[in-house]
Input
Amino acid sequence: MPDSDYPDIRRLDLFSDMTPEHFQTLMRGAYVQNFPPQIELITEGEPSDFLHVVLSGSVDLFSAWNGRDTSMATVRPISTFILAATIKNAPYLMSARTLEKSRIVLIPSQDVRAIFDVDGGFARAMVTELAQCYRSVIKSQKDLKLRTSLERLANYLLRQQRHAGDAAAFDLAFEKRRLASILGMTPENLSRAFKGLQPYGVTVDGTRISIGDQADLERFAKPNSLIDDFST
Amino acid sequence: MPDSDYPDIRRLDLFSDMTPEHFQTLMRGAYVQNFPPQIELITEGEPSDFLHVVLSGSVDLFSAWNGRDTSMATVRPISTFILAATIKNAPYLMSARTLEKSRIVLIPSQDVRAIFDVDGGFARAMVTELAQCYRSVIKSQKDLKLRTSLERLANYLLRQQRHAGDAAAFDLAFEKRRLASILGMTPENLSRAFKGLQPYGVTVDGTRISIGDQADLERFAKPNSLIDDFST
DNA sequence: CCAGCGACTTGACAAATATCAATCGTATTG
DNA sequence: CAATACGATTGATATTTGTCAAGTCGCTGG
Output
């Protein structure tokens, strides 16, 4: 691995508290690879050989069953994925594929587990990371079970808007078919859902979203920090 | 707390690897309480003051939004809940209420975080516990997003059957209204779903479920270890 | 330039799910 | 024992969501 990547990884919360020696050990066994778009990095059901770290690009975590499939989450730099499978030495529950050209670190799971056993700082960082992941999925689960698809879309747009610095207009982070899958609906329904939000001042032009009256949309969406706030 | 409860708690994976001193410290600040049924133990949004351990009885984790509510999970002895909120010192994402008369240990979150900082064994046990919780929610999420309500019910019954030692008949673990909520449907729909499984040999008499032909039901349900196997 | 591809949209329809109201059955209680 | 309360069920209906089949639009590669 090029040494230039070290600092970026070291700076991750997950790796910043471990001893330099242990970090070195991890990095010695690791390697970095550049992947083109649409490459399947891991397949659900396979043993978790590597902990992955996305340095650049983005990765889609998805799952399939009985001919259907669904996007579960998107991983953006710089963060890790499939930490839980790695540490439990259990099969992946989700598949992963690159969405764009991506630079990814692969750290042998075996090494991660070994260092985890001897480095308290690493173990503690892992707790924080896993707790965060757990709470994110719980929020997503609440979103799915408590809201209609229209409400999910409205709240998603408000979250994206906040992420864009409360701008009145912003671009969708990815294509609509996958947004639909993430929100748990079909692409056709997403199209209709966008129309359904027109009365609340939402206009769509291709990938560009404009929110005419944020307060109006919020009155409908009823965003809630226990579902929509990703920082806590 | 009565000393008789110590061994039960100590035997939990979460607490078995920590030093005796740290365990003592945790137990000194903890207390045990008996709650009647239907008592709300915690409310979502509140600060996480205590890590909870269910010694006996059972607890429903649920969440509400905009007048709707849904059951997220059931906690049975002996295990903990809201570990993630405790460790992140963040508000509860779910509310909890006793389903029956329950005996519950309350351990001040502050103590848990303090010991977590100094006891590597505890931190490591926490990682395992959180990874398990995370994977459980992911499975549940896949169940929700990839399956129809009929398929969810069929697979739920197969899981329960396995839990009952592959018996041809078994009793539902809780009342149907809450089962419906857990499976993400209305009670009315659950009733119809049971009827919908009759062609596959499922018969219902009150709380008693009989599975006439397990292979037949499995052909319909298509159980998958990456969704339905809770041990991995 | 333009043919072709793929994502998106739209409409018509079908299926799944929720809602509302009424009823049934059982367990509890005065 | 009767009255009642509550969960479960059922039927009718409405809403939501998915499916299928066009058709549009924009982009890209020859």
